[in-house]
Amino acid sequence: MGMSVTISAATAQDAEQILKLQYLCYQSEAELYGDYSIEPLTQTLDGLRAELAEGHALVARLGDEVVASVRGWIDESGTARISKLIVHPRMQRHGLGGRLLTAIEARFASEPSARRFQLFTGHRSEGNLRLYRSHGYVPVSTEQAGPALRIVTMEKEAAAGAFVKSA
Questions:
Q1: Please, what is the Cα angle at 83 between 72 and 34, to 5 degrees?
Q2: What is the dihedral of CA 59, 154, 41, 12, to 10 degrees?
Q3: Measuring CA to CA, how many Å separate 133 from each of 33, 119, 129, 147?
Q4: 7-55 pLDDT, tens digit each
Q5: How far apart are CA 42 and CA 119, in angstroms?
Q6: Taking phi first (over 0 means left), then psi (-120 to 50 degrees means alpha), and beta for anything else, what does residue 136 get?
Q7: Are the beta carbons of 153 and 118 closer than 8 angstroms?
Q8: Which domains does the chain have, with CATH numbers?
Q9: Torsion angle of C-alpha atoms 136, 137, 139, 141, degrees rounded to 10
Q10: What is the pLDDT of residues 130-161, one digit of tens each?
């Protein structure tokens, strides 16, 4: 490629690029489940800006372009909730999603209140399920979220996050 991908904290100036990337990345999920009204496709720029201001977000850049992102926050129970791990379709299957997941886990592991990591995906999202399992996540619950969608919640203890291999 000639350029290397760098991972850094997202800034408010990244919001527009993140939202466009999110819209692109969630098209395949919407198609998989036959539902184009999923929250990542309906989120507004103001909603994303508020989310960035309230939690933690990382971006992966190739030059000036945001090619991947992940967000999360720590709730009052000490659960680091990881969400919206997205990688541009042309950059998928090269370990970038794993690198971002490891990076956000490391960010949360530095918080004394973080006791576990938790994320979720759809039951048919095999690539996501495979990635999360390879990083030590195990299913803890499944919830029917619509006629064609079951949400699989996965988690692992935060202490285990310090020993995850790099992607």
A1: 160
A2: -30
A3: 21, 11, 6, 25
A4: 999 999 999 999 999 999 999 999 999 989 999 999 999 999 999 999 8
A5: 20
A6: left
A7: yes
A8: 5-161 (3.40.630.30)
A9: 150
A10: 999 999 999 999 999 888 889 999 999 987 44
